[in-house]
Each structure stands twice: as structure tokens, then as C-alpha cells.
Amino acid sequence: MTAQEYGLPSFFQQRVDPESENAEDVVPQLLRALRRHLGLQVAFVSRFSHDRRVIEYVDASPGAAAMITPGDSHVREETYCQRIVDGRLPELIPDARAEPEADRLAVTDSLSIGSYLGVPIRFSDGTVYGTFCGIGEKPDESLNQRDVELMRVFADIAARLLEHEAQQSREAEEIRLRTRGVLEAGGMSMVFQPILRLNTSRTVGLEALARFRSEQPAGPDIWFNQAARVGLGAELEMRAVEMALDALGQLPSEVYVSCNVSPEVAVSEPLLQLLCGVRPERVVLEITEHAYVSDYERLARALAPLRQRGMRLAVDDAGAGYASFRHILALQPDLIKLDMSLTQGIDTHPGRRALAAALIRFAQETGSQIVAEGVETAGELEVLRALQAHVVQGYLIGRPLRLADACERLQAETRL
Hints:
The chain is α/β, with parallel strands linked by helices. It has two domains: about 5-170, 2-Layer Sandwich (Beta-Lactamase); about 185-415, TIM Barrel. Helix content is about 40%, strand content about 20%. The chain has 15 helices and 14 strands. The chain has helices spanning about 25-40, 80-85, 100-105, 105-110, 145-185, 220-230, 235-245, 265, 270-275, 295-310, 320-330, 340-345, 350-365, 380-385, 405-415; strands at about 40-50, 50-60, 75, 90-95, 115-120, 130-135, 190-195, 200-210, 255-260, 285, 310-320, 335-340, 370, 390. The strands form two sheets. The protein has an eight-stranded mixed barrel with strand order 7-8-9-10-11-12-13-14, surrounded by four helices. It is elongated, with a radius of gyration of 31 Å. The chain starts with about 20 loop residues before the first helix and ends with a helix.
């Protein structure tokens, strides 16, 4: 049977997609629709946890709201839920007093159960999550097997949502453990990519890039995105910035370090305190094009004291999307970093050359400097030189290096 065959609202006739819907929104609607359709006083979803049955979601009529509440926990053996799952009670009980197994349970008296329906909620692997149940305060002989089938339809919808939620919860815990392991065991290291000034051919800065050691290799973007998903993004970012700034003591005083930060971390007190301990003119903070900025004024206000002391702000990935132009106009950065999607092939692609030229002209008009990222060929470098880009970085200039190797490169430059 389907929800449509029972004449229920169109919402319940559609296939629920766990990727776009969540249990917290949908399950209460399922319970309310079922309770009203069957004339019950209470409908609820329970979860089995070891030897306990825990109430997760409840919908009740006004007069029965106190019968069961979310969070209630009972010994499984003493519940209808357990006995329905293992077959000692039927899924349909029109009169609890007429069912000997139900009549013996203390909960029948304590909750004044007159009628009861319940079906297991099973995940795709057959695991029983708990039950989808309804309670009537009076016996109701009109309840029938068709009503049980309807309850199964709703239980199946709830199962898909709850299984997806459980899977996400497990994945989040795995991410949390991996991230904590990195933070506590030193599983992150930094490499430094040279940034070259075109008119002097000298390295003026190094972009600090995080690298991770793990049994499950993944790129830095994945690590930071997953950490943010479980509430550890700011902590992981701060650790990366700390490690990047630690390198300043080993670098020539005229060389800066560029660090990637999210807008949330950029306005945080821990970052501001950390930056107060270094010479601000040796630090560039990069805000990526892909980062959503909810309050530009707050971000600009938080960074203003440090920028007044010499710290520079960069907008990363310029040209990769519309957001970068909003960042540039709202934040008035000191550095505009052209995304590699613009610079790569710029010597053979007129459109990329035209857009890069426009951004370079914009930087000249506003007092910013252009950093062209992703430069990999001599042809690209020559075009950027002709367009009067200020600074470049990329594999042609130098790959990311360990700090010791970066220091050796800088020492070699001073001997030239």
C-alpha cells in the first residue's frame, strides 16, 4: 500500500530523499499525519540502545501530551516495542486488556493504553533501529491490518531518513577522531611555496600550505572542509597558522609568510592575539574566493588595526567566480591573487589575457598588487610580465618546499 491509496496529503505521496530532507523535519510530520488519520492520542518513534528503549520523536493530542515525551527511557524488556519486534506481541492490538501479554505489562496501566499499533523500523541491512508506534487511550476494534500496512509505509520513510542520519553521525565521529588525532599527534606539517617579484626576480614571500599524514590520504581542502563540518575547522586552521608563523624566525626579515584563513577565523580573538606576537608587515592573510562572508563590515573592522600596523590582506582565487569580486570591492585587499584558471594558458587564450589585464589595471587604479598563481610555463610568465603583473607563483617559479629547503633557496638567492 502507498500513502496515496490512504488519501493522505501529497507530501507523503512523494518519495522522500534523505540527501535533501532530514529526520528532524519529516518524522514529526509522519507521526502527526498517522495519529490524526487513525484517531490515536499518541504516535512516537523509539530507538533501541543496548537494553533501553529511548523515545526519539512524539506527536500527541493536547490532552495526551504528557503520556510520552522525547528522551524518555525504559528497559526494553518492559516495553511493547521490544515484544512486538521479537514476536511476543502482535503489531495490531485493538484492545490491550484483551491481549494477555500486554495486560501483564505495567506500562499498560501507567500509560492507560487502550489500543496499540507498532512496527519495527529496519535499516537496509536488516538492523532494527527501533519502532514506529501509536497509542489509543481506549480500545478500538475499528483498527485493522490495513492501518498496520499504512504504519509500515511511514516506518519505511522514517527508516531511510534515520539510517542516513545515523550514517552521517558515524562519518562525523570518524572525521572528529581523525582531526583530533592530527591536532594531538602532530599529523600536520607545513610546506612553503615561493612567491617571486617579477621586476627583481627575487622571492618576496612564501605561501604556507598544510600537508597531512594519514592512513586515508586526502588533500588539504578535504581535511579543512571536513574539520569545519564537525566543528573543528577553526582549531585546525589556527594550528596551521601557528605553524606557518613559527617559520618567520628562520626566514630573512624581508620575506613574508602568506596564510590561508576563513572569514570566521580572520575575526576570531585567538588569531588576533597570535598576530599581535609577530611583525605584522611579515604576514599576509588570504581570504579565499570560495569562503562565504556574511558580514564584510565586521571582517574589515576586525582586521583594520593589524592592517594599519602593516599586515596585508589578500583575496585568493580571483577570477574563479563572482564571490571574489565582491571580496575585492568590499575588503579593498592589498593583494589580489589571480586564480590559476586565469593564468594557465594565458599565452594562448585571448579571453583569459583580457580578463587578467583588466584585473591588473584595476589593481593599479586601487593601489593593490597582483599575484598570479599557477604559473607553469615560460609563455605564461612572459605574458604576465608584459601585462605588468607584480608577483607570481607556481611550479615554474618553485614547488612547495620544506622549510629547510625554502631557507636554502633564499640563501642561494642572496649569493647571486
